[in-house]
Specification:
Layout lengths: L18 E5 L7 H10 L5 E5 L6 H14 L4 E5 L3 E2 L5 H8 L5 H4 L3 H7 L4 E5 L14 H11 L5 E3 L7 E5 H10 L20 H14 L10 H18 L7 H11 L5 E7 L1 E3 L3 E2 L3
Length: about 280
């Protein structure tokens, strides 16, 4: 039997666990998203930043992450403008979303719940905005029928990628991606990191290594530099084919890079957020 997780008390967000809520909103937000945000917000431990008016979501996410790293916050919750996450009031959540989740799940506090896992990259379970759409994480198609039948499960699982609609980041995720792929860093891009931007990051990294292997060093003689460079480029080309951003959404691209930098993405199967379109999804 699955044991419910008891929501953490309001004081759980200590000084060193403050959370910045980042809103990559275009022009309008669903009214219930705004209400849920107001219900989650704790003035003494949280703050809010917004990027609006940019139709290219990658720009908004990169700008918000850059502002996050420029702050002194440890955590950032990225919340899209069509998401309604649980905010500590089961009755309100079920009435507004019509998801009719068990009381323990509908009454969770999203930020407290995600931080409590101690993972650097963990997101809520939510479904695509169409009838029959699957949960937005790597194994969503495989787990779809099970989740719809059983409902929220009190567990988190590692995954290749999880959607950014309601996703918690520790600041080290972005910092370590910058260390792993310097050409994506704030320093090399005018102050705005390119963590979510589509690019062949593995191949770029390999080319930089190959150039370094061929560059003469004063006072030393490089042996077999061409062979070393060819090996590096071949390995980079292989990694690039595995992690290619072609056909990927920015959420997948970010999670792939995060994993390469040492941060495994997780999805919380117990924390379900409503995803609004013509209806609140999932619609059974």
């Amino acid at each position: 039997m699955i044991q419910p997780t008891i929501p953490l008390p309001p004081g759980v967000l200590k000084e060193n666990r403050r959370c910045l809520i980042a809103l990559p909103w275009y022009r309008t937000a669903h009214p219930l998203t705004s209400v849920a945000l107001l219900r989650m917000f704790q003035r003494d431990t949280m703050s809010i930043i917004v990027s609006y008016g940019d139709a290219f979501i990658v720009h908004a996410r990169n700008k918000l992450a850059s502002k996050f790293l420029a702050s002194n916050f440890e955590w950032m919750l990225m919340l899209d403008d069509d998401m309604v996450p649980p905010c500590g009031d089961a009755k309100w959540f079920n009435e507004q979303t019509s998801l009719n989740l068990p009381e323990w799940a509908a009454g969770l506090g999203t930020i407290e719940r995600l931080i409590s896992h101690g993972k650097t990259l963990v997101g809520a379970t939510y479904f695509g905005r169409s009838k029959g759409a699957c949960p937005v994480f790597a194994e969503g198609k495989v787990r779809n029928a099970e989740l719809l039948q059983v409902g929220p499960r009190n567990e988190i699982i590692p995954t290749k990628w999880v959607g950014t609609g309601c996703l918690l980041f520790h600041r080290t995720v972005f910092e370590d991606i910058e260390k792993r792929f310097p050409h994506l860093s704030r320093e090399n891009n005018g102050g705005t990191g390119q963590w979510f931007t589509s690019s062949e990051h593995d191949l770029h990294f390999a080319v930089e290594q190959a150039i370094a292997s061929l560059t003469p060093v004063p006072g030393s003689l490089k042996m077999h530099g061409e062979e070393a460079a060819i090996k590096i480029l071949r390995e980079g080309l292989h990694r690039s084919s595995v992690h290619s951003s072609l056909g990927m959404g920015e959420d997948v691209q970010l999670c792939v890079r995060a994993a390469q930098a040492g941060h495994t993405p997780y999805v919380d199967l117990g924390l379900w957020a409503g995803h609004f379109g013509p209806f609140c999804y999932p619609v059974k």
